[in-house]
Write a structure and sequence with these properties.
The complex is a heterodimer of chains A (208) and B (172).
Chain A: H1 2-6, H2 18-34, E1 40-41, H3 53-63, E2 69-72, H4 80-89, E3 93-94, E4 103-106, E5 130-134, E6 142-147, E7 155-159, H5 166-175, E8 182-186, E9 190-194, E10 199-202
Helix pairs in contact in A: 2-3
Chain B: H1 21-35, H2 38-47, E1 53-70, E2 77-93, E3 101-108, H3 112-126, H4 131-158
Antiparallel strand pairs in B: 1-2, 2-3
Chain lengths: 208, 172
């Protein structure tokens, strides 16, 4: 990695097998959105930018292209290696205002209020933002129970990435249906999803 | 940008007078590498010492590009057809290089090795210490070979020229 650190302007390789690896990652994202809260394994590129990680790297290579605008939140936004890597492999346009972005890449600390993101219109709800949330190393204790399409009854969701302000924001997001943002929870090797149709309810601490 | 007739979308035809000389030079050498015979490229790469390490960054991979045409400078653009193009991007490091360098190549056809070798030489050209050596030892001989090949083809074609005395030639 010493050579890569010396010349961050040279992007690291992407997927080893671009077609099949992207199809596998796309399938994982599709499964995750079809079964909210459930985690699906994700295989990523061998040397992604460290700030992005393998999981986010795989999702970014799969979903982003030159036709979409992406906003990188917090420290990721100033990481030259990530910007170079995304520009080379996906061609996505990086924007400086989260309200302009179709894809928002953030970690729990840098996630802007969901209401600030694009949520589409009633006529075109698909013009909304998709948040790729980096949930690596999150240490919170939040737990929710989830209901909605794709969930048989209720599902438990352990959400170490969620802070106290998340639940009201998410409730407002689901209430605006068909408008609203979708959330992809991307770990190092897994992806789970919270589409705008999934309702979350608080779950008391310690309840089995 | 060139001015166009109303109704056409923006035209991004490169205006050579505004292009930086180093871009023109690189375009020329990339063209020479792309049009070279792959056996000549392989021989040049075998002979190159000290040999750097070549790591793939993207590809080589083959795909289709849409070739667009225009009937003249003011004509409306149309899709002429698709062409198979192979591209490669490599990172070079190790022996003889001042720093890691990146090389790109786009080559007509589906010869993956051709694109890889062309990208490797393009990377060597990006190294300030090796630039002139690559131009002298690789690019110039390849360009000479191509010029000879083109001249042979032109000569062969010229022999088939027929002059019709009843029709005046526009550009003779």
């Amino acid at each position: 990695m010493s050579t890569a650190a010396r010349t961050p302007t040279i992007p690291a390789p992407g997927f080893a097998d671009p077609t099949r690896d992207a199809q596998r990652a796309f399938r994982a994202v599709l499964d995750a959105l079809a079964h909210p809260t459930r985690s699906y394994p994700l295989g990523g590129p061998a040397q992604p930018p460290p700030a992005l990680g393998r999981g986010l790297g795989a999702v970014a290579l799969t979903l982003l292209d030159e036709g979409c605008a992406t906003w990188l939140a917090g420290p990721l936004g100033t990481d030259a290696e990530t910007a170079t890597w995304l520009a080379f492999h996906t061609g996505t346009r990086l924007v400086t205002d989260p309200a302009d972005a179709q894809f928002v890449v953030a970690d729990p600390a840098s996630l802007p209020p969901l209401a600030r993101l694009r949520c589409g219109t009633d006529e075109a709800p698909h013009h909304s933002a998709t948040v790729l949330l980096d949930v690596r190393g999150a240490t919170g204790t939040a737990r929710f129970s989830a209901t909605g399409p794709g969930i048989d009854g209720t599902a438990d969701l352990t959400a170490p990435w969620a802070d106290a302000g998340f639940l009201p924001q998410w409730t407002a997001n689901t209430a605006a249906f068909p408008r609203g943002v979708d959330l992809l929870l991307v770990g190092e090797d897994t992806v789970a999803a919270l589409p705008r149709t999934t309702r979350l309810h608080p779950r008391p601490e310690g309840e089995a | 940008m060139t001015s166009t007739t109303p109704g056409t979308t923006s035209v991004t035809a490169p205006v050579t007078t505004q292009t930086a000389p180093e871009i023109v030079a690189r375009r020329e050498s990339m063209r020479t590498l792309a049009l070279a015979d792959v056996a000549d490229l392989a021989a040049a790469w075998q002979a190159w010492r000290p040999a750097p390490v070549v790591d793939p960054v993207r590809g080589p991979e083959a795909g289709l590009v849409m070739v667009r045409g225009r009937t003249d400078a003011g004509g409306v653009r149309f899709n002429l057809g698709e062409a198979t193009v192979t591209r490669a991007t490599v990172r070079l490091h190790g022996a003889g290089l001042q720093d890691d360098v990146l090389g790109h190549a786009y080559v007509l056809g589906s010869d993956l090795e051709h694109a890889r070798l062309a990208a490797a030489f393009d990377g060597l050209l990006a190294d300030p210490g090796l630039h002139d050596r690559v131009l002298d030892e690789v690019i110039a001989p390849l360009a000479r070979t191509q010029a000879q090949r083109d001249r042979r083809r032109r000569d062969a074609a010229r022999r088939t020229r027929v002059d019709f005395f009843t029709v005046s030639r526009e550009h003779s």
